[in-house]
Structures are given as C-alpha cells and as structure tokens.
Design brief:
Length: 420
C-alpha cells in the first residue's frame, strides 16, 4: 500500500491529467488512506505538508499572501481561499529566516489562522465549511494543483527569508494610519454616500488637495535622503467582468499619480509601480472610481433609448473605457495644477528644493523599475465598439467625483482608443 505522500502525489498527477475516471480512482484511494489505523490523518498531514511546501516556493517567485488569496478565490472559490489562508498561517509558523512586518500585516488582514495541529487543519476546515470528506479532499487537491502551477511574477518587495543584497531595497509603504489619510478616507466616505453631486465634488476635491500636497511633501523629503531605495509596487484586482476596462482605469489613475501600470490579464491583476504616497493615492482612487463608474454604468443602462440595438456588454465596455480615459484627463489636469502651484511656492523660498527636477528624477526611477521588472511589456490598442456607450461614459466621468489624488500572456498595458 502506498504511503501518504505517494497517495497525494498520485492524486495530484491524476487531477492534472485528462482521464477523469483515473482522477476519481486516485481520490478514492485518498479517501481510504494508507490502510493503517491513522491512515486518513496521515493523508491530511501529507496534503497540508505539500501545500505548505508549495506556498513557500511561491514567495521567492514574487507571490504575496494577498495575491495567492485573490487568485484562489478567482480560479476556485471562497472555500478554497479559506483553506489556503489556513495553510499560509502554517507556512508562516514554520518560515525560516526574517519575515518582514508587512507580510504579517497581510496575513492578519486576511485573517489567516491555523487551528489545531497539522493533522487536524484539513478536517477542521472541512467541518467549518460543511464539506464531506470526499469533497474536502477533492478541493484540497485542486488547491494544491493550483499553487504548484502558478508562474513566477515580478518580485515587488523582498520576501520572507531574504537577506543581504539579494534584492534591491524598495521604498517602504506610506503611513496608512496617518491623520492625513484618515481625513482623506472620511472625506471619501462622505462623498460616496451623498446624493448631491455638488457636495460630492467639494468633499472629494478637498481629499484630492490633501493627497496631492502629501505626495509632493514626501517627494521633497525623500530628495534630501541618501537611502538608495527603488520604487515599490502594488497589485490591484482587474477581475471579470470588463477586466480590460478596469485595467485601463488602473492605468489612467496610475499615470496621473506618476506611477506605471502593467496588466497581467491571465492572472487577474494590474501591477502598479511607484513611490509610497503615490501608490496609496492610486489604490484609494481606483477603488472609489470603480464604485462610481459601476454605479454610473447601471444608471446609464436604465436611461438608454429603447431599441438602440446594441448588446449590453458592448455598451458597458465602451462606457467604462470612455469613463476611464476621461477620468484620467481630469486627474492629470488636477495633478499638474497642484505641481505648478507647489513649484512656484518653492521658487519663492530661498534655499528650498526645486520641485520639478525632483519629480522628474523620481519619474525616471519608476520607469527604470518598470523596464527591470517587465522587460517584455507590450501595448494594445483599444477599440471603441459602441458610440452611445462611449458618449455616456465620457459624460459620467465629467460628473464623477475626484476622490483622492492629485503577465504572462504577454503582459499588456491598455492603450489609447482606435475609434471605429
């Protein structure tokens, strides 16, 4: 009788194959276990052990806990995501070498906790999810197959266990609990809840002013240091539906905040590279503007002329693409105005650091980081397939509140439209 590790390996190989009956037979073998008195618990421990090993192999290849959680929910389901969180907690417990604080912050935000010893993690998860043993084993093997199949992605920050000069030192994150960001979030919450457009404009305009000033202040402070950091990065979800339009919105928001964006469409995220304060602005803006765009799109559907003859999906895509491009123009205009005002103020202050050369140097550093991490990046033209949706999306963007600021297949950056 095979031992537990062999049973897991056989089941995994069968699931990866095309013979459905063979996969079911191997899963049945997992159900039976090794034949020993503790054969089933040995199988559970072997499954968890291999899953933990697979997760540990992902960290040096660029994956972070939030990335693994996101793609598990995307390709499997929420139950599998809760299992991978438990496995990540076990892996963290056994992790050798230094673990950065931001890593533990991600695990804490995901509520990644391991309950019980290695032999009871799988059964405990199955009990909480209401799964029988057959379904639990099938899902665990599917999760293991996913984890072991994930490709390398860009290493945005040194992973656990990294020491010395193995990786360049990336700039730290902005102070997410700062009073300024607390004020910005409060303004955004009010802007998104009000039913009066003028009030939303005023509230979000103030939030924009705060984040723009903060970004400029951070740039000037960093200019006086000699840390030698390189820009950091974040990954933002661009899941279906309308993944391309979401990626375009990320790109437009990123460009307005002196960041670069690359879309990995097969993995369901866009990678944004930039300096800490700018990355915070992009995250806040993208999240809020996506909510606004979706709400405006649904309202626009209801206002469409009867018998317009266009499919809803085509109209929606054109609407969201137009919204993203018009919002990008508005954001860039606001950023340029704030930058000009700050540069003029600095010019009138004896001994003050001139702003524009500082921003130019930081922008060049972001582009160099892009070239290093994504040497094969390509661009794709955007086709407009519904003129009515495009016009409606542009109008909605003009009415939207400016909230806060200022790949494998191959990797793509959405481009400008090619209207037809």
């Amino acid at each position: 009788m095979p031992d537990a590790d062999e049973l897991v390996a056989n089941a995994l190989a069968a699931v990866r194959g095309t013979d459905v009956r063979q996969a079911e037979r191997q899963l049945d073998q997992l159900m039976v276990g090794t034949g020993a008195a503790d054969g089933t618990t040995a199988v559970d421990a072997a499954l968890l052990r291999r899953l933990v090993r697979g997760l540990g192999a992902l960290w040096p290849r660029g994956w972070q806990p939030v990335d693994v959680d996101r793609i598990t929910g995307r390709r499997l389901d929420a139950r599998a995501a809760r299992l991978v969180r438990a496995a990540m907690a076990v892996q963290r417990r056994d992790q050798a070498g230094p673990v950065p604080a931001w890593w533990d912050d991600q695990l804490r935000e995901l509520e990644a906790n391991a309950v019980g010893d290695d032999r009871s993690v799988l059964t405990g998860w199955a009990t909480r999810e209401g799964l029988d043993r057959a379904d639990a084993l099938r899902m665990a093997v599917d999760l293991l197959a996913l984890v072991e199949s994930l490709p390398p992605i860009a290493v945005l920050r040194p992973p656990p266990g990294a020491t010395g000069a193995a990786l360049p030192r990336t700039a730290g994150t902005a102070r997410t609990g700062s009073p300024m960001l607390d004020r910005v979030r409060a303004l955004l919450a009010k802007a998104e809840s009000t039913t009066f457009p003028a009030e939303a404009e005023a509230l979000t305009g103030k939030a924009q002013e705060l984040i723009a000033r903060h970004s400029i202040d951070e740039a000037l402070v960093a200019a006086g240091s000699e840390r030698g950091d390189v820009p950091g990065g974040v990954r933002l979800s661009t899941d279906t539906p309308y993944a391309g339009a979401k990626a375009l919105l990320v790109q437009e928001v990123a460009a307005a905040n002196r960041c670069e964006s690359v879309w990995s469409d097969d993995l369901g995220f866009a990678t944004v590279l930039g300096w800490p304060a700018d990355l915070v602005a992009v995250e806040l803006l993208y999240t809020s503007l996506l909510v606004q765009a979706t709400a405006a799109m649904l309202r626009g559907r209801a206002e469409r002329r009867p018998g317009s003859g266009r499919r809803t999906k085509v109209w929606d895509e054109s609407f969201l693409n137009a919204f993203a491009l018009r919002i990008g123009e508005r954001l860039r205009t606001a950023t340029e105005a704030a930058t000009d005002a700050a540069d003029q103020a600095a010019a009138g202050t004896p001994g003050a650091e001139r702003l524009l050369p500082v921003l130019a140097a930081r922008g060049e550093a972001v582009r160099e980081r892009l070239d290093t991490l994504f040497p094969g990046v390509t661009r794709r033209r955007l086709n407009v397939r519904d003129a009515e949706g495009w016009s409606s999306g542009t109008s909605a963007a003009d009415r939207a509140s400016l909230d806060v600021g200022s790949g494998r297949k191959p990797r793509q950056v959405p481009g400008r439209p090619d209207p037809r």
